[in-house]
Amino acid sequence: METEAFMADPIIFLTQRPLLINVPLDTNLGIEPGHFTVQADSMLVNPQSSQKPCALEIDQSNSSPLLAYWCSYEPDRATQLTVGAGANFMFTANMDGCSFLIKRDTTGSVIVSHSNAASIGMSMHGAMRGKGPATSSVFQKTMQEQMGFAKLGGSQDVVTHHSQSGECTTVVGVRETGSGAWKFYKQVISVDSSGINVSVKTLTEM
To answer: Does this model's pTM top 0.70?
Structure first.
């Protein structure tokens, strides 16, 4: 039921219901879309609403109607993926300090990147001085520049979101069925100290 509700109106869904990504971090689907499901998470509570938090999971049976691109996650690396007309949604791992970048070029292609440099930033500049997260974002930017994201010739457009350490951010891509244009949304989720009470803090278009 949650899968169908998400597909029918993902923006309303993400406004009301926290979406946690319950996909193994080492998942790599390559360039092809995969099948996913959205299910109510019985272990979590949404104190701001009667609507329960949800979890995104891979559909091992490949029968779910929710077909989506998966931008993979790798520790201390930047990954990239081109999204197109093969699916109407894109997901990536939850972010709590990583960077997510969107590049639209003159050909109409849309490339996304998820970069992580937590241990690099922490080890090189020292967590005790409080410079780990900031340094990580610098390394994440450098990684993406090395992949060609900084070459902004023509009418290319690049958007970067640096998630905050200590927050949980879910990034979702939605392809409009009429125009085929991709839009990306970041859902910032509040998690209390118990780790059980979660609620939607903000939902904004990137």
So the answer is: yes
